[in-house]
Amino acid sequence: MDSFTQLIRGTGSVAEVIAIYDEHCTTYEKMVCEKGKYKGPFILVEAVTKEVPECRRKEVRVLDVAAGTGMVGVALAQKGFTNLDALEPSEGMLECLRSKNVYTNTFHEYIGQGHTNVPQGCYDLVFAVGGMGYNHIPFTGVLEFVRFAKPGGLVMICMRHDEEDYLTKLKEYMNRLEEQQLWKKEFSTPIKDFLIGTEGVTPGRQKLCGVGGGLLVF
Ligand SMILES: C[S@@+](CC[C@H](N)C(=O)[O-])C[C@H]1O[C@@H](n2cnc3c(N)ncnc32)[C@H](O)[C@@H]1O
Q1: How far, in Å, from the CA of 131 to the mean position of ligand 1?
Q2: Where is the Methyltransferase domain (predicted)?
Q3: Three-state DSSP class for 153?
């Protein structure tokens, strides 16, 4: 297990996790990307650019959940996305991502304690990369993702695959939301080398049920 993961897994509360991200915000990118170790953001960006054709990238409204230092936002901006918002609980990480000047609205919030102040039903695309897992967004947090998205919008999650207990509960919960017709599973893909030596997975690219304004059809 890499040292940053060890550090995070050694914590017992949300406050401790956020304090670690605060403390490491300026070195985070170097730490996780060193020697090409963490590929999550690049995998997500590749998937998003495949989903959204170039001609739609300016109009698609995107929410980056657990945005960290904004690596995904920067890469998406380079691909022509201009309507990006971010949610991030660590003040330090938030400062870093704001300095990148690619996000329009930034929300200092965390997922897991009731509703956030993020506007509901506004986003064509909601994603989280590296934000789901032990000591991070609880598996029930995906319901909040559903609330953020427009009817017909897309939710994408990109995460490590080695947290079996969490992943099992997440998949069961996702299935329950599907039974309630809140969303529909589109696909789940194994990811090679999400973090070098650690497989990843998109446990579900979900399309929200229902019709309404801003329906995004792929
Ligand atoms: C591994 S980093 C990923 C950051 C970024 N998405 C990336 O790929 O570089 C995980 C992020 O999740 C955030 N996080 C942790 N718990 C969270 C929660 N309950 N709600 C929202 N974000 C959370 C952390 O502050 C941290 O920035």
Answers
A1: 4
A2: 62-153
A3: strand
Residue 72 domain boundaries: 3-208
What phi and psi, each to the nearest 5 degrees, are found at residue 137?
-70, 125
Looking at the DSSP assignment, which residues form a beta bridge with residue 154?
125, 207
- Distance from residue 211's CA to the centre of ligand 1 (Å): 30
The pLDDT assigned to 195 comes to 63
Domain count, the chain: 1
Q: Whose CA is nearest to atom 13 of ligand 1?
A: 66
Q: What is the pLDDT of residue 207?
A: 53
User: Is position 218 within any domain?
Assistant: no
What pLDDT does 161 receive?
79
Tokens of 2: 């890499």
Q: Per the domain annotation, does 216 fall within a domain?
A: no
Q: What is the CATH number of the domain that holds 120?
A: 3.40.50.150
**Distance in angstroms (rounded) separating the CA atoms of residues 167 and 176:** 14
Q: What is the pLDDT of residue 120?
A: 92
Q: Please list the ranges in the chain whose pLDDT falls under 70.
A: 1-2, 35-36, 193, 195-218
Q: Is the CB of 216 under 6 A from ligand 1?
A: no
Closest protein CA for atom 19 of ligand 1? 137
